[in-house]
């Protein structure tokens, strides 16, 4: 499918300025969302240039053709939705009516979704039992102490990767029963009002002990909690990236003899939810830790955790 003839982008067209418009006009969005929109819109701009179409303001047939191009290229339905949302966001930021609202675009998106399917590939949760297996293989080196603390705190506080690596020592409040983790800004708190998560001292996974062991070994008393370590063992003053969390997770999952491709950085957060619900924790109590705002968001985890409870075939299978 090819786009209908549309005006060619003017010579002084600068996609960077349009992409930056997202950041200035959509500060309410999460940083990761802004980055994803910027990347997606840049892809749209490049495609428009390759076919001689005008990306801004774009016409509905152009966007519909781009959607078809993405589908033909094997992009997932979720990715197509992201690109469409990015195109709409940039147009609004530039004061233009989004072409994505046209029926031609909507129909093409619906057709692509039916053809591609909308089922998402979910990574496996790193449950408490999974973590126990993983932690047995984590060495007592400086890097091992860091990774143990990172995995346990990420799990116990059900933290997103970005929240975990953003932690500073000042964000950890010591109390008799454990630690209060202060989240300065998160996906569900874009205004920076702050959120608090209680992490019990515990007697099984011993999260607080692991965290104290890392901070003591690294002699960290201020600044970033989780930092990069070079091959020689020197600890940097730079904090880890959210990508590092996924890499660390996969490394130790593989070392424990499990399939690392089934897990991601999000597996820690998902693992806490799955473990808590399987243990019979109250949904509202779980939400207090995860900071989800909708009960329905946890339903997919609840279905998994209770998949075999009172199973219909339990008495005859």
TrEMBL record:
Q: Which Pfam families match?
A: Phage_integrase
Q: Does the keyword Membrane apply?
A: no
Tyr recombinase domain: which residues? 121-317
GO molecular function per UniProt: DNA binding
Record keywords: DNA integration, DNA recombination, DNA-binding
Sorted alphabetically, the Gene Ontology BP terms of this entry are: DNA integration; DNA recombination
Record-annotated Core-binding (CB) domain positions: 16-95
Quote the SUPFAM superfamilies the UniProt record gives. DNA breaking-rejoining enzymes, lambda integrase-like, N-terminal domain
Does the UniProt entry include the keyword DNA-binding? yes
Q: What is this protein called in UniProt?
A: Recombinase
Organism of origin is: Methylobacterium brachythecii
Upper lineage is: Bacteria, Pseudomonadati, Pseudomonadota, Alphaproteobacteria, Hyphomicrobiales
